[in-house]
Specification:
By secondary structure, this protein is mainly alpha-helical. The protein has a domain at 16-72. It contains three helices and two strands; from the N terminus they run αβαβα. The chain has helices at residues 16-29, 45-55, 68-74; strands at residues 38-39, 63-64. Strands 1-2 form a two-stranded parallel ribbon. Helix 2 links the parallel strand 1 (38-39) and strand 2.
Length: 87
Amino acid sequence: MTPSAGGRFDLVAYGPAALQCLAQQVDALQASDPLAAVDVVVPSGVVGMTVRRQIADPGLANVRFPQAVDLRKHRWAPWGSNPQPAD
């Protein structure tokens, strides 16, 4: 699958290879605009924090790490807004 508004999925081995692939994908998505919004869906907040720290060299801007369960309410919400869950 190629990068698009719908997302991208890459199957890689767990560990350093996955972190390297993710860092490359974030760099590619922000190549033309370093402040472009990027969402990286993670299973938990701890995983999000760990991944952010591992790939943040030299830094990250406008990269969010929502949990899969929270993606539904944040996916289409503008940055800085407080979206209400859809019922």
